[in-house]
């Protein structure tokens, strides 16, 4: 570029410009540092520590039956939680959006309870309900069903903690959608079910998947409530997160790091999925 | 194939509020009937009850010989066109039109043929693979119409079908719908707040106000012989003049208009006079009304005169250019008020607010 025709900027304007650039650069640096230090550094440190002793430790860890069982348990809990929260989340969201009834506002507020409540409290509540002398203890124990210190209570508390994700993602999309398309489907001869599966569900699918991915991530990462209701019995009621907790306590840190890294990798995959679903929602919004 | 719609004493209450009260009318077979009224008059609720989208509090609905009141929406075989199209946004134009055939389990071959036929009919054959968001408003409403017609409905229900379109598209689509109806002859019920639309498209008009029927009749009857002061004020534009009944006339200060023979002597009355029923008269005629010209506005083929009567009431007149005789602001002119419609003030009180100003 030649300088012909471009008059030099006045000195005052130039310092102003420089100051603005400095402020902007500073802000970007702060954000990069913040995200880097608080989000990426922990992840990198886990990866480094887990892989540093060599691949044979990784292989050994995955051969350990306790580890295999822990992942199996986490997998079962996550799958059941995802199915239950997806179905019940859509039902609750649909009722909250489409039905008018006494106590709807209260219900709408209560849905957020699991966000506000500490998971440890949730675990304790489950102990009160199902524990020795608990409210429902006789009912289940007389039928030979073990709730506490077993899979059922672990699934129960995880579902409780994860349910708001689907509801809160689906609700606004349903609200925005309105009833016109469902009405149209009905006048064209579709039953309530057909209209739901062919018209409503396709319209809320990205929000639903987004909510499901969030609740899966929550289910996999949950420890507080599960630790209390499971009793953390090694090789029996030990999920992946509980395994890490014990491994660190018993100074078997190498295995703990490998399991932690695996969970982190799953989280990254979920994060990518979540981001992709989110983009689909906003894209359909703009259409 | 097509059937008349009969509605008997239909009522819909939401809590204490009666959206529709005791509505009875017939939409004759093969004709276009308009449900005309201002927003909130209950006309859309009537339509939604006929479709089965809303449950009536009381009353009965018939389609030909068949009573529909207890039949579910999906079995009523009505075609419904919504104001905001309500197209399935995740389906293509062809999939939208095919939906009503798919859910009724028509064969693939028949469905395909019917979709082609309808897209041809609404002139959108080239758009079959497009999605609704890739179409203009007018095109979307045509897709909605094709979708509603695809399963061969017994009746077609249209809820403000042109309400979301701009004026030009609305005109074109209205004319096109008129032609389409002549071709198909399906019993149609059109909900609209636009009197022009009702007068142009309908063979029969049901005027509604505050959940009740004000008048049922042909467009001419509604326009020329309004049964209530509300109809006189709502359909077409009209000047609203308040006065008192003496000797079969409505008296407004020193002047009087005829047509109040049916009203009680000495009672308060309102006379409705259409702007084009006002003519400039011979200044020497005895029975004409004097008024002062306040504004002169040219409308091209007509001139709009704003006139002030001696008792301060304002009158708007549409006078053909060649009858104007050079009237200008400040002139005192003699006017003839033709075909006034007089109603007692008690009836007209509730209509006064909704009567459009001219």
- Overall helicity of chain B: 10-25%
- Cα Rg of chain A: 25 Å
In whole angstroms, the N-to-C terminal distance of chain B is 44 Å
Based on CA inertia axes, which overall geometry of chain A fits? flat
Q: What is the helix/strand order of chain B?
A: EEEHEEEHHHEHEHEEHHEEEEEEEEEEH
State the helix count of chain B. 9
What's the main sheet of chain A like? none
Give me the oligomer status: heterodimer
Distance between the termini of chain A: 42 Å
The chain-level structural class of chain B is alpha+beta
How many DSSP E strands of chain B?
20
For the residues shown, what is the average pLDDT of chain B? 90
- Measured by DSSP, the beta-strand proportion of chain B falls in 25-35%
What's the CATH class label of the largest domain in chain B?
A: Alpha Beta
* Overall SS class of chain A: mainly alpha
**In CATH, what is the homologous superfamily of the largest domain in chain A?**
MetI-like
Number of domains of chain B: 2
Question: Could you give the topology of this structure?
Answer:
The complex is a heterodimer of chains A (about 290) and B (about 350).
Chain A: H1 11-51, H2 55-63, H3 65-98, H4 104-110, H5 113-116, H6 119-130, H7 137-141, H8 151-177, H9 180-187, H10 192-221, H11 224-230, H12 240-249, H13 253-286
Helix pairs in contact in A: 1-13, 2-13, 3-8, 3-10, 3-12, 6-8, 6-11, 8-10, 8-11, 9-10, 10-13, 12-13
Chain B: E1 5-14, E2 17-27, E3 32-36, H1 43-51, E4 58-63, E5 66-67, E6 78-81, H2 93-102, H3 108-121, H4 137-149, E7 155-159, H5 167-184, E8 187-192, H6 195-201, E9 204-209, E10 212-217, H7 219-224, H8 229-234, E11 239-246, E12 249-252, E13 255-257, E14 268-273, E15 278-280, E16 289-298, E17 302-308, E18 314-320, E19 332-337, E20 341-344, H9 345-349
Helix pairs in contact in B: 2-3, 2-4, 3-4
């Amino acid at each position: 570029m030649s300088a012909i025709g471009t008059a030099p900027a006045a000195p005052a304007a130039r310092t102003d410009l420089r100051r603005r650039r400095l402020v902007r650069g500073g802000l970007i640096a702060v954000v990069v540092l913040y995200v880097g230090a608080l989000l990426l550094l922990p992840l990198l440190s886990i990866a480094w520590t887990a892989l540093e002793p060599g691949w044979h430790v990784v292989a050994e860890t995955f051969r350990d039956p306790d580890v295999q069982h822990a992942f199996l348990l986490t997998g079962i809990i996550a799958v059941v939680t995802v199915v239950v929260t997806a179905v019940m989340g859509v039902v609750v969201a649909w009722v909250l959006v489409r039905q008018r009834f006494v106590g709807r506002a209260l219900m709408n507020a209560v849905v957020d309870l699991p966000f506000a409540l500490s998971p440890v409290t949730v675990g304790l509540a489950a102990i009160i309900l199902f524990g020795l002398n608990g409210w429902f203890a006789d009912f289940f124990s007389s039928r030979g069903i073990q709730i506490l210190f077993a899979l059922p209570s672990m699934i129960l508390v995880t579902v409780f903690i994860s349910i708001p994700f689907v509801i809160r993602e689906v609700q606004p999309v349903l609200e925005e959608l309105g009833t016109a398309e469902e009405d149209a489907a009905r006048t064209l001869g579709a039953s309530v079910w057909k209209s739901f599966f062919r018209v409503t569900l396709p319209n809320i699918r990205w929000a639903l998947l987004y909510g499901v991915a969030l609740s899966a991530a929550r289910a996999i990462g949950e420890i507080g409530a599960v630790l209390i209701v499971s009793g953390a019995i090694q090789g029996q009621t030990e999920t992946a997160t509980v395994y890490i907790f014990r491994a660190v306590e018993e100074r078997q840190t190498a295995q703990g790091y490998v399991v932690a890294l695996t969970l982190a990798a799953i989280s990254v995959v979920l994060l990518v999925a979540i981001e992709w679903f989110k983009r689909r929602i906003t894209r359909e919004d703009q259409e | 194939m097509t059937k008349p719609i009969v509605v008997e004493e239909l009522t819909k209450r939401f809590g204490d509020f009666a959206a529709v009260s005791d509505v009875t009318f017939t939409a004759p077979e093969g004709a276009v009937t308009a449900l005309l009224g201002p927003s909130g008059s209950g006309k859309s609720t009537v339509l939604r009850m006929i479709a089965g989208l809303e449950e009536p509090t009381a009353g009965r609905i018939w389609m030909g010989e068949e009573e529909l009141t207890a039949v579910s929406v999906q079995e009523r075989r009505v075609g419904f066109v919504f104001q905001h199209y309500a197209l399935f946004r995740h389906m293509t134009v062809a999939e939208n039109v095919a939906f009503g055939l798919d859910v009724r389990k028509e064969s693939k071959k028949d469905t395909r043929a019917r979709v082609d036929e309808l897209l041809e009919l609404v002139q959108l054959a080239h758009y079959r693979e497009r999605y609704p968001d890739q179409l203009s408003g007018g095109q979307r409403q045509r897709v909605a119409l094709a979708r509603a017609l695809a399963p061969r409905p017994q009746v077609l229900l249209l809820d403000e079908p042109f309400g979301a379109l701009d004026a030009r598209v609305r005109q074109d689509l209205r004319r096109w719908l008129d032609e389409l109806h002549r071709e198909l002859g399906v019993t149609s019920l059109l909900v609209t707040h636009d009197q022009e639309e009702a007068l142009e498209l309908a063979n029969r008009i049901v005027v509604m106000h505050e959940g009740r029927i004000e008048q049922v009749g042909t467009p001419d009857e509604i326009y020329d012989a309004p049964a209530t002061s509300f109809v006189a004020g709502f359909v077409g534009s009209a000047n609203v003049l308040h006065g008192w009944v003496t000797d079969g006339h409505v008296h407004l200060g020193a002047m009087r208009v005829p047509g109040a023979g049916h009203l009680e002597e000495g009672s308060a009355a309102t006379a409705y006079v259409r702007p084009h029923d006002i003519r400039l008269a011979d200044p020497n005629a005895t029975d004409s009304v004097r008024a002062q010209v306040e504004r002169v506005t040219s409308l091209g083929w007509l001139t709009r005169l704003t006139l002030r009567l001696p008792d301060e009431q304002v009158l708007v007149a549409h006078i053909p250019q060649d009858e104007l005789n050079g009237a200008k602001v400040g002139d005192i002119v003699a006017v003839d008020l033709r075909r006034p419609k007089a109603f007692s003030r008690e009836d007209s009180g509730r209509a006064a607010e909704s009567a459009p100003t001219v």
